[in-house]
User: What shape does this take?
Amino acid sequence: MEKVNLIIFARRPEISIGKRRLKNRIGKALGANFYHRNLLRTILKIHNDSRIQLKLCVTPDSALKNWPKSIFPKVKRINQGPGDIGEKMWRIFSNNTNKTIIIGSDIPDITSKIILSAWKKLYLSNIVLGPAKDGGFWLIGLANSKKFKGIFNNVFWSQQNTLSEVVKNIPPSESILYVDTLEDID
Assistant: This one.
């Protein structure tokens, strides 16, 4: 089996960047601390699996150079670029001609076993989704991005029906396979 092409979308962990909803609920310092620890744990769980080729897709774009030395500085990083999350994910998929899986960096229960299961499913279907408990998704994998050009059109992000909006954009002729439903921390 070829190596899993896994891309984790991540923000540079600091108090002033990202996780607005979480930080509004529990405070900026606690929210930033949670994100930093969870990002480290996520990378640790996956980085040690030799079957997975891991890249971080980071924001802000300056994180390509200004990345914390405590968070796997040797893991290859690419920038997310401008736009909403759909535009950013589509840019990654359209620039990868091979099978690709994207996950978020805020899924505490992620395991390499689930990632490998998703990868195997990409041999049976052109799309794999990992539903989130809040109605969104924490994983999306495409075997052939050319078939899914408008997959993120008219999707309202961070809503309870985000996953169903993406599914509506998938051609009916395409089968969808799913992996475990997990919680992502917004």
In short: The chain has one domain: 4-178. The radius of gyration is 16 Å. The helical segments are 20-26, 28-47, 85-94, 112-121, 162-168.
